[in-house]
Amino acid sequence: MYSTAFLDLPPLQAAAGEVHLPGSKSISNRVLLLAALSSGTTTVHDLLASDDTRVMLDALRQIGCVVDESGGSTVRITGLGGSTPLSPAKLFMGNAGTAMRPLTAALALLGGEFELSGVPRMHERPIGDLVDALRQLGCQIDYLGNDGYPPLHIAHGQGVPALALAAPIRVRGDVSSQFLTALLMALPLAAVHQPVVIEVVGELISKPYISITLQLLARFGIAVEHQNWQRFTIAAGSSYQSPGDIHVEADASSASYFIALGAIATSATGQKDAKSGIKIQGVGLDSIQGDIRFVEAARAMGAVITGGPNWLQIERGAWPLQAIDLDCNHIPDAAMTLAVMALYADGTTTLRNIASWRVKETDRIAAMATELRKLGATVEEGADFIRVTPPVRVQDWKPASIHTYDDHRVAMCFSLAAFNPAALPVRIEDPKCVAKTFPDYFEALFSVAQVAAPQIPVICIDGPTASGKGTVAAAVAQRLGYGFLDSGAMYRITALAALRAGLAIDADHEARIATLAQTLPVRFEGGKVWLGSDDVTEAIRTEEAGMNASRVSALPAVRTALVDLQHSFRRLPGLVADGRDMGTVIFPDAPLKVFLTASAACRAERRYKQLISKGFSASIDDLRADLEARDARDSSRSVAPLKPAQEALVLDNSDLTIEQAVEKVLSWWQERQPFAASAQR
Length: 681
Description:
This protein is of the alpha/beta class. The protein has 22 helices and 35 strands. The chain folds into 4 domains: 210 residues, Enolpyruvate transferase domain (UDP-n-acetylglucosamine1-carboxyvinyl-transferase, Chain), CATH 3.65.10.10; 217 residues, Enolpyruvate transferase domain (UDP-n-acetylglucosamine1-carboxyvinyl-transferase, Chain); 137 residues, Rossmann fold; 90 residues, Rossmann fold. The radius of gyration is 29 Å and the shape is elongated.
């Protein structure tokens, strides 16, 4: 997951391949609560790992459920089975409406004392209609802040009072379907001796989400009848029973981004056996989730979509896409993706009946309108609609830094703008917000997105020994969310791999070592150097490893193989490479080249402190003499002599801290970005 302040997406050109989606958030949190209310142990397979499910799991532990997470995406929940939950308890719900609302209703009927709170935005999301319905029953719920909004206090210290079940419980349906879902999941606890009736006041929005709730209730032994989605009856004698095992379907809302990707991006061409289109694994045309109907909307815009029980295949069809005018009540979350697809349509797209956008993780109508305009679109917004007209000409597109409002769907939607015909980059601010439902979203996007290598940005940081280039480069890569290449380690790793393979490092084995070097599984992650699954960080830092690296570097075929291997590190979203010839030989087209240097005295002192800290004896004078001699050799060698690239910016960090040097490199990089000014608003 990218945890950087922003993530810059270079212009993307094509997309093809296969994506495995995470579990549905809507299904995951419903299943967790239903398992918690049931008798017995429920094994939940393919559970979504996200911020929203994390707060639910933490809350269930606090109220007394046994939660076993030892099986990766499989979680075992031993439910309360009618027993009173542990209390008092303070439960933090983050910004998870699928946790806050149903858990509020369940706890109000189970008895005990609870305080439920969340992030500031959760305290702006309405819950008054649900609280009003629960108060009708006789539940004691108080607001701890503004009336109608969390945080809440539930107080039933002496057990749940007698509930008023004779009359139907009335709840509004035109603000959020989660209010009705919360009641449907909680009221079976009260339907022991008599049926319980819920009446919806006004139009029920997001009916497909209620359908999910009803189907899951049935899996846990609860029968609910409804009349035209306005009157719901929970049968008398209801009792939650664990189904034993239950599988979470992949998230249909998350599928919308890759359905859209298949509709707007060309497939890979010009390659033998090139993949075609986007295949989505984990959700199919028979999904129980309402957002699967996004397929209908995408087809209406021109996408060619086929599928089966657990997969979808998307190809680009009509181009440009066709503008649509659509009532989106049935796909409220996925409809946001249509707003970005509208950027690629011929004409004006109107999305209607989306008033619920106003009370989601942010005011999504306002957010989408603001960010679409940044890209050059003409947008009209109303209380319950948005109308999007794409930029008329290619030159009307604008580079944009997209503010994401701590809203996962805003971040994921606007990543698709990187496929714009003007070949402009797009910045996604706060990319980690996707952790709410799809922590690895950008990794999944980059796994299928394709772009010509010269379009992938590279920052080269070259310099003499002990200049700090490796430390600075690694820090810059981390700040940008880019990959990192320590070119100096490549020869050491090659030598180590050759010796482990039983190859002597000499001319007789040059061809075999070169072949080995072509496919070395090298990674630089977490401050460590990996060769496959083996941490070789310390193994390649010995004096012997350095001598072996020098012998390897003298083999021309190996040097050629390692050039190709280093080129393979140029992957989305970008790369920071440090070494001695990154800007002059390996990546001569890099948009930013830095030559990091420091005085020999300064570098000798740094190396001295480093050696002393590791328990080695050293002499500053000897270290300085060695560095000066090495500088002379490196700058006069016939192959790739150490020198700044012609357009490199020289940074003398003799008097700078590492952080100051990093900030300077980042400032130079920012100056080269077309949306830097808008990002600093």
